[in-house]
Amino acid sequence: MSIWESLAVFAAGIGAGTINTIVGSGTLITFPVLLATGLPPVTANVSNTLGLVPGSISGAIGYRKELQGQRARIMRLGAVSLVGGLAGAILLLTLPSDSFDTIVPVLIGLALVLVVFQPRLAAALRRRQEAAGGDTGHPDGGPLLLSGMLLSSAYGGYFGAAQGVLYLGLMGLLLREDLQRINAVKNVVAAMVNGIAAVFFLFVAEFDWTAVLLIAVGSTIGGQLGAKVGRRLPPTALRAVIVTVGIIAIGQLLLR
To answer: Residue 163, SS3?
Structure first.
């Protein structure tokens, strides 16, 4: 990896850590950059997953105030999400590599749709809460939330783009909770899913350790930036960056 490629991966790690802490979809920043350095898609994906773990932890620490009083919820959702994340990681290495090349552009496209329509989803959630007098959803999410978190985490273990958006949508619909506190839980659960997938990959997959290190350092910095100043960024501008990079990623995969 050249010095310029290394700088690009490091900068992508900062951007991914920041975006993941705010909403998710940071993989849409790092993954295409890793592909541009010449890494095969599966190697890029597992290296990215391991590298983003410190950033997820950093973001969760940045939201520690919002985590107060949510230990039982995190334990419950985290246990289900760990199972899903491990299942997704196993699928990544069990399915043929050609399947990854075929599936991931579709997953990125779906993730971009989620990112684009997130404001409408949030508005719909607010209208639903107002119609219910601000009291809506099961206090613990119920079986529906657990099932949704299981499937979303399986997706996250396989390929984590927009994983955080899925979590926010599910918990926002099914929990009676402030969005910032939901975002704090999202950061912890995402760290757990990335962590379990990364541990599995350590034993069975091939990494590019330079990429892992650069993304790990960059995403750790980005996690703190996202927690401190990310809420001040214009959401429209942030979504535009994610969509632009995601389209580039799809193009790179289809032209390989």
So the answer is: helix
> How many Å apart are CA 205 and CA 134, to the nearest integer?
47
State the Cα–Cα distance between residues 77 and 141, nearest whole angstrom: 9
- pLDDT, tens only, 3-33: 999 999 999 999 999 988 887 778 989 999 9
Residue 45 pLDDT > 60: yes
Specify the DSSP class assigned to residue 63.
T
pTM equals 0.81
CA–CA separation, 151 vs 13, rounded Å?
26
Q: Which two tokens stand for residue 56?
A: 């997820």
Do 51 and 30 meet the contact criterion of CB atoms below 8 Å apart?
yes
Q: What does the pLDDT look like over 167-221, one tens digit per residue? A: 887 887 778 777 788 889 999 999 999 999 999 999 988 999 999 999 999 999 9
Angle in degrees, 0-180, between the axes of helices 3-22 and 41-62, rounded to the nearest 10 = 50
Residues 245, 39 contacting (CB under 8 angstroms): no
- Non-local CB neighbours of 80 within 8 Å, separated by 6+ positions: 146, 149, 150, 153
Give the Cα separation of 52 and 159 in Å (integer).
Answer: 12
| Residues 43, 134: Cα–Cα separation, whole Å | 46
Is 69 strand, coil or helix? coil
- The mean of the pLDDT values for the chain is 85
Token pair in block for residue 133:
């007098």
